[in-house]
Amino acid sequence: MDEAKYQMQRQGWNKAPQWLISAEEVLEKFPLLNPNKILGGLFNPGEGHIDPYSLTQAYAAGARMYGANIYMPAPVTSLTPRTDGGWDVETAHGTIQAKRIVNAAGIWGQEVSQMVGIEHPLIPVHHQYFVTATIPEVAALKEELPVIRDLEGSYYCRQERSGLLIGPYERAHMMRLQEDWVTDGVPKGFGKELYESDLDRIQENTEAAMEMIPVLAEADIQSVVSGPIIYSPDLLPLMGPFQGLHNYWAAVGFSYGIIHSGGAGKFLADWIIDGEPPYDLIEMDPNRYGKWTTREYTAAKARESYGNNNLLGYPKEDRLGGRPTERVSGIYEKLRRRGAEYGFHSGWEQPHWFALEGDQAGYKPSFHRTNWHGPVGREYEMVMNRAGVMDITPFAKFDINGKDTVTFLDNLVANKLPKVGSSTVCHMLTPRGRVYAEITLTRLADDHFFCITGSGSELHDLRWMEEKAFSGQYDVDITNVTEQMGALTIAGPASRDIVAKITDQDMSNEAFPFMSVKDIVIGGVPVRAIRISYTGELGWEFYHNREDTEKLYDSLLAAGEPFGVGDFGVYAMNVLRVEKGFRMWGQEMLTDNNPIEAGLSMFIKMKKKSSFMGKEAIQKIKTEGTRRKLVLLKVDSDNIDPEGNETIRIGDEVVGNTTSGCFSYHLGQSVAYAYLPQDFTDLGTKVKVELLGNHFDGTVIHEPMILTEPAREKAMKQASAGS
Questions:
Q1: C-alpha distances in Å from residue 182, one per residue of 17, 138, 234, 291
Q2: Contact at 8 Å (CB) between 411 and 472?
Q3: Which of 257, 657, 688, 705 is the most exposed place for a label (fewest CB within 10 A)?
Q4: Residue 227: beta bridge partners?
Q5: Half-sphere exposure of 289 (CA within 13 A, CB side)
Q6: Is residue 588 helix, strand or coil?
Q7: CB atoms inside a 10 Å sphere around CB 443
Q8: Residue 450: helix, strand or coil by DSSP?
Q9: DSSP E strand boundaries for 140-297
Q10: Cis peptide upstream of residue 73 (ω within 30 degrees of 0)
Q11: What is the pLDDT of residues 279-335, one digit of tens each?
Q12: What phi-psi label fits residue 492: left (phi over 0), alpha (psi between -120 and 50 degrees) or beta?
């Protein structure tokens, strides 16, 4: 039941109703189940089924009512981009000139994408279900049975007239892909045809269903259906505008079919009309995939995702199929030998933590603290007291230059642009004043900038920049150099002394101040060194040619050996940034939030002359005030830590949600960032945070828990001056 409780803690603050029910209540709703196999259930009153054909015809009728023209049959033969950003759509009926095109072609989505010179990572999967003949016990029921999903048996079941319909998801090694449709296309004329059935593939699931629903054992199978459903590598659809193609939108990869149609259509329509997404769905961004997403990777991940469709989902889930891709840094194997436990970040392998001698290595999923908890604490202590090195090659990196670069960027971001030789954290806002992205801009020359953003937002951010440059007719060149440049960071109080041993550059605070950049040589490797660290400790990021990563890494380790330097990973980095009060894009800030409520006012320069995107909206927000605010909570939990999306209550009322969380090794307990109504944001305010069915005490505390290294240095200088 932990998985059901895990889902509930994330659902309470959302609008869709669902709740946990007892074994007795499960049997009341579905009396044909084996009571010996039921512990409880998660009930969704909105679950159901619908006839896809009838719904599609209803959509078509509604579209015509509002002026849409539907041509059938009208196969598209070519798609040609126009210089004004529109498209010529060639059909048997002639050419249609469109402002934009939306690829919603289902199993033909791959072929449509190939018409515009790209290839979406999609592959057809054979999905089977069978329908029984009349079952007397079903026929005798007075009410229709609810749909059930048995995660352990990996199948769903619903009533079909007076029988039952069973839809299994067989294991990865048993399921079948229609790979030739990827290479050769969907057969001409394919419509309502089906694949040949193969009940042997789903025997294990069928036996599990018979154990759970005993009346199935005596039932006759009336029909078996085996048809294509389209899969993306991670099971989620590709929905939104696509980087590199103006006004080309994707709406493909809906593995659950018609169920998402209404919401997807509304989401895309609102985005097209308003110029920004109505809410955050970054996990469905078509730009989460890139050139690294090969057909082999797509097939491997589709097998894994299909086989895991109805399995338990854990916090910090890490799926290993299709990995590694071509996106590995120059020290991938070396770090693996040094104990790196890798996670997956937009195709990249990046260490989450390191298992050293005596640690329990490997991926051990759990709803509670698991094998990485102790090692992450060790890495945290190392960075706080000595120094640590981390591979940050997955960071996305763009080179921006051209005669309109300054005007373009000044209108794009809300902060002031940095001076030459320095860096600034900036935010790209939407017209409504929401946070579309957080980037770090480094100014290399008057009209030349180096931009860094997170690995998960590489093409997401690049598309936004390219779109604004195109629509504003700016003379600017934006080059994605992510693949060419490696990156390492060193952080901790000993980092200055370590680097000073292997460079001729003066690394002192006076010569190399916070947020400055210099092109220097470290250990014989030319690097672009930026004095910045997401840990909040003294540190630098070193950007360099990828072929030099191992040489640079070895030099840092050798120089740092007397200081006790070692490796640290993403999990330790997350703890360090939370304790320093740093927000994370996609967690504390996204298109569901504005920067004022997120505590980012210091980065929003309302007095700068340019009318940056979102400026008017921010002024309105500041005038009217915000209804909620981001706060830091300490959470009195027991062997379980918040990670974000947990429900927060005061009494029986849902008042907010967490955005991210961790175990604070500084406090020795769980902490979480959370959005709460303004009335509940005072220090000391008590709330309840839901974790695995328990409502733990949470208290609003001061942030940051620990001052950053630059802030500590500034405070010390002020104290010395005062004395």
A1: 39, 41, 17, 16
A2: yes
A3: 257
A4: 127
A5: 26
A6: coil
A7: 22
A8: strand
A9: 148-150, 155-160, 163-168, 221-231, 238-241, 248-252
A10: yes
A11: 999 999 999 999 999 999 999 999 999 988 877 788 998 999 999 999 999 999 999
A12: left
